[in-house]
Amino acid sequence: MSRRRLEIGEDNIAESKPRKYTKEKTKTVNGHKVTHKKTFCEMQWYINLDGTVSKHCTRTVGNDTRACTQQARAHARKLRDLHLLPGSGNWNMYNDMGEFVDKVCIASVKANEYASPLRPRTQARYLRCLTLFHERTQGMLIKDAIVPATLSNVFKDIAVNHGNPSAKQAAKIVSRYVMEVARNRQVIASNPLRPLTLEVTVPDEMVKPHRGEDKPEGGQALSAEERRRVVNHLLKMNPTAPARKRWSAEQMTAKRLNLIDMTLTQATCGLRVGECRLLKRENVYTRDGMFILEVLPEASKTKRGREVPVFDERVVKRLRRRLRRLPKEPDTPLFPTPVTGKVWERGNCQKAVRAFYDELADELDIPLLREVGTHVWRTTLNSEWADKHVPVERRAAYFGHSPEMNRSRYTDFTDLTALREQVEQG
Asked: What is the pTM of this model?
C-alpha cells in the first residue's frame, strides 16, 4: 500500500501502527545457560519538514503500543521545534501566522532597513496596520490564514472596529509586507491578495464609533514665510533635466515641469494631489475675470464638486502657458504623464512628488517638507486664512472639506470676490 503524500510540516504517525517483537538473549551464569526475553514496540514513520520526506524509527521497551506512539509524536514535535525555530528563517505553512508577522514582518519594518527608508509617520502607519493584522491572526496557522475567505473576514473585522479606510490600508500593507515577504521566503507559493479583489469593507452602519487613531490631531503646516519661499523658488526653478535610463531629456523635463506647476497649484490653491491629477483642459476656464479650476465630484475626495479660483496671478500665467502647450482636446489632462499624455498614474505621481519634496527640503532648508505630504498646503493655507479672519464657512467651502460645502457647490461669485478680498488683505 503506497504512502499518502505528506505536506510540509505533516507526519503520518497517526496512520502508522507499532509492531511488537521479542528478543532473546542467552547468558552463561555459573556454568548454566540463562535465556532472557525482552519485548519491544517499534514504529516506522515519516515526516516532511522542508519539502523532503524523512524516515524515522521509534522503539520502546514493553508491549505498550500507546507509549510507542506517544514517544514518536514527542520526537516529531522536537524535530519541528529544532527545524522551524522562529527567527531562524525556516518558516512554513504550519507556523503561526501571528508569530511570523511579529518576528519577521513587524521586526523588519521597525528596523527600517530598506533601500528607501520609511519616513517616521509612514513607518508608524505601517506598524499599526501590521499590528491590527497580527492581533487577528495570532494562533492561526499560515495555511489557514491565507484562505481568501479568512482574509476577507479579518479585514472586515478591522473595518468594523477601526473603519473602512483602515481596513483598505491594512490590506495593502499586509499584501506587501506580509504576503510578499512570505512568498519571497518560499513559505507560500503566491501572494493570495494580489490576484484577488477581496471585499474588505462593511456597510457604514456596521462600523463601530471609533476615534481616528491613525490620524494625527491637526495637520502640520509651514509658516506663511516658508510657503512664500517655496512658491518664489518654484517660479524661478529651471525645469530642464537630463536624460535618465529609458527616459529622454524631453520626457524628464516634462516630468519636472509637471512637478513644479502642480506644486505651485497646490501651494496657492490647496487642491488635493488627486484633484490636480484629474484636472482636464475643460475644467479650467475664466469667469467674470477670475481664473477657475473646476474640481468634479468624481475627482473630489468628498465626492462633491467645487470651483477653486486661483488668486496668485503668477500661477495663473504659468497655467495659461501650460494650456497653450497642451493639445486642444477638452479631455486633455492638465498635468499629463510625460510618456503617454494620459492622466498621471497615482503611484508614479506620488513617488515623484515625494522625491521632489525631499529636494525642496534640502534646497530651501525646510526640514518639515521631508516629513509631510501634499496635504501640507491645505493645512498651511487654511491656517494663513484663519489668521486673516476668513470665516470658517468660506474656508471649508473653498477647500472642500465641509459636509455642507456651502450647499454642495461653491459657485456664488459674490462670495468668491469677498473671499479674494479677504485673502489678499495684509
From this structure: 0.50
